């Protein structure tokens, strides 16, 4: 593994996932010691699935006090939880169904039903959990990045990128597909720790653009810079091939 600044390059996606699972455990201990809770906003898509699967294995799950873990989602596709495209469904299958996390600690975005109403409901749930805060401060945010530089459901050219007061908004990929519900840039940037998980050659050129600030117009993933927290990129060699 090679490190430059906050970019950690791993030989394989599996080693990336193992490192991310280890980070989850370590960060969890750090925050649980301080506040007896560990709030996490999970990434959707395919890359993080292996991280969640690893956290559900004996090697990792015994090292997490799941009763103190609060699982949220960075975004969701507007589909039912049992739909193959549901981020919640993916995390449920890979992790939630296996570990002893109390149901009340899993904060699902309601993908079925009216997107606007679900976004309002999710923001209300966040404001209840982060009671009194002007912005939520997640202990850990996991994010992925699309080959177009999007992250969560913040897509290039989307009005959602400019949202500076709401915590949760609805969006839709220009390329079509499901309506989405996503946390906004200010929410991600209030996190204590943000870790991007990026693997595969298909993302290599875009990753190089994102990590070199002169790309114009700025790509969504470039807009994620915690104001008082850490930003780390866990990438594999294939995704790092243009760095
Ligand atoms: C989603 C994610 C999205 C994802 C990227 C990368 O709901 O799909 O929030 O931002 O992280 O599209 O997806 P892969 O990991 O599948 O390449």
N-to-C CA distance: 14 Å
Count of helical segments? 7
User: Would you list the SSEs in sequence order as H and E?
Assistant: EEHEHHEEHHEEEHEHE
Helix-residue proportion? 25-40%
Strand order of the largest sheet: 1-2-10-9-6-3-4
What best-fitting shape do the alpha-carbon axes yield? Answer: globular
Rg calc:
17 Å
Number of strands: 10
Structural class label: alpha/beta
Q: Bin the strand percentage.
A: 15-25%
Largest β sheet strand count, sense and barrel closure: 7 strands, mixed
Low-confidence stretches: none
Residue-averaged pLDDT: 95
Bound molecules: 6-phosphogluconic acid
Q: What does this protein look like?
A:
The chain is α/β, with parallel strands linked by helices and 243 residues long. It is built from 7 helices and 10 strands. Strand 1 and strand 2 form a beta hairpin. Helix 2 runs parallel beside helix 4. The two termini are 14 Å apart. Bound molecules: 6-phosphogluconic acid (6PG).
Brief description of this entry?
It contains seven helices and ten strands. By secondary structure, the chain is α/β, with parallel strands linked by helices. Strands 1-2-10-9-6-3-4 form a seven-stranded mixed sheet, with helices on one face. A three-stranded antiparallel sheet has the order 5-8-7.
Keywords:
single chain; 243 residues; alpha/beta; seven-stranded mixed sheet; three-stranded antiparallel sheet; 19% strand; binds 6-phosphogluconic acid
Helix and strand topology:
Layout: E1 2-4, E2 7-10, H1 13-35, E3 38-42, H2 49-55, H3 58-61, E4 69-73, E5 75-77, H4 87-96, H5 115-129, E6 140-143, E7 168-171, E8 180-183, H6 185-188, E9 193-198, H7 204-211, E10 230-236
Parallel strand pairs: 2-10, 3-4, 3-6, 6-9, 9-10
Antiparallel strand pairs: 1-2, 5-8, 7-8
Helix pairs in contact: 1-2, 2-4
Bound molecules: 6-phosphogluconic acid (6PG).
């Amino acid at each position: 593994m090679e490190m430059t600044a906050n970019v950690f390059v791993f030989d394989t996606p599996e080693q990336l996932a193992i490192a991310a699972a280890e980070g989850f455990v370590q960060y969890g201990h750090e925050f649980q010691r301080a506040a007896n809770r560990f709030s996490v906003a999970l990434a959707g898509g395919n890359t993080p699935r292996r991280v969640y699967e690893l956290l559900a294995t004996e090697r990792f799950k015994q090292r997490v006090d799941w009763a103190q873990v609060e699982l949220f989602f960075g975004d969701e596709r507007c589909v039912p939880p049992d739909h193959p495209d549901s981020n919640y469904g993916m995390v449920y299958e890979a992790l939630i169904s296996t570990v002893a996390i109390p149901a009340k600690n899993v904060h699902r975005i309601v993908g079925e039903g009216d997107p606007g109403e679900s976004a309002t409901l999710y923001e209300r749930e966040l404001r209840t959990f982060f009671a009194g805060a002007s912005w939520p401060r997640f202990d850990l945010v996991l994010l992925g990045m699309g080959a177009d530089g999007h992250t969560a459901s913040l897509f290039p050219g989307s009005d959602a990128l400019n949202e500076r007061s709401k915590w949760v908004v609805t969006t839709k990929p220009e390329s079509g597909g499901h309506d989405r519900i996503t946390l906004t840039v200010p929410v991600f940037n209030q996190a204590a720790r943000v870790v991007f998980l990026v693997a595969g050659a298909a993302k290599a050129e875009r990753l190089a653009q994102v990590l070199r600030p002169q790309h114009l117009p700025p790509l969504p993933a470039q807009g994620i810079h915690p104001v008082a927290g850490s930003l780390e990129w866990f990438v594999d060699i294939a995704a790092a091939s243009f760095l």
